[in-house]
Model the fold of this input.
Amino acid sequence: MEITGKTRVLGIIGWPVTHSLSPVMHNAAFEYLGLDFCYLPFSVKGGNFDSAIKGIPALNIAGLNVTIPYKESVLPYLSEISKEAKIIGAVNTIKVEGKRLIGYNTDGIGFISSLIEMNYSVRDRSLLILGSGGAAKAVVFQSAAEGVREIIIANRTVDKAIDLKRQTEAQFPSIKMEAISLGYMELKNAISRADIVVNTTSLGLRMGDPSPLPKGLLHKGLFICDLIYNPPETALIRDARDLGCRYMNGMGMLLHQGGASFKIWTEVEPPLEVMRQAIETAIRSLDG
Done:
């Protein structure tokens, strides 16, 4: 990849972003298609977020992905927000048009697309979701749109889970909703009737992190999804494998949300298999 003064810059903003494989995935796609773009990681601590976002148009950056912990806090800085991002209340993709920042959310469709690849549908299922941040909102609202029967939101701060429950009920009043804490008995009751469990928290991002769920509560009938993809095997995924559950990590969601972002920025169909291969190669090198 040759970078010149004409190369358009894209990137990912968050804290931390050193683990992100988005640069690998997108740069492989640009090189394959011969597009004059490059994609960079921008590690921005909380105290610098305001100045970083405000500086985007001046730096002539073409667009950004937004990750933890800024998917919700970025909203006031945007000139326009797409319909799905408004409903979800979180943004993971920004397109820059002159001085205007336009926000989108591709997380929800990325999640559903990754399930489709696994021949799994959320329709008429009971979903237990761990966390209530930006990724959780995207998964909840997209699953609701896809016809999920029940959604149980479990969060350390119950008030945040209740807020997400109410927001979802306002858009999808026919879906059974519940908000609970991460207490053992509440989780036990929720898991006993859940079909699919999705971890949207950052627990598992660091090597040595414990699982967000006690292994003893899991059962073989569950489909376990951990949206973390690096490391590719978290404690939750390891427990699911040991118990014979169906499972997936966040690599498929990374690929498909990235592909949707790619199309927003470039107006070109993403080469998904090239992007997938780049992710898999990067993960193998991490394991080695």
Remarks:
- The chain has two domains: 8-105+254-287, 108-249.
- The chain has ten helices and twelve strands.
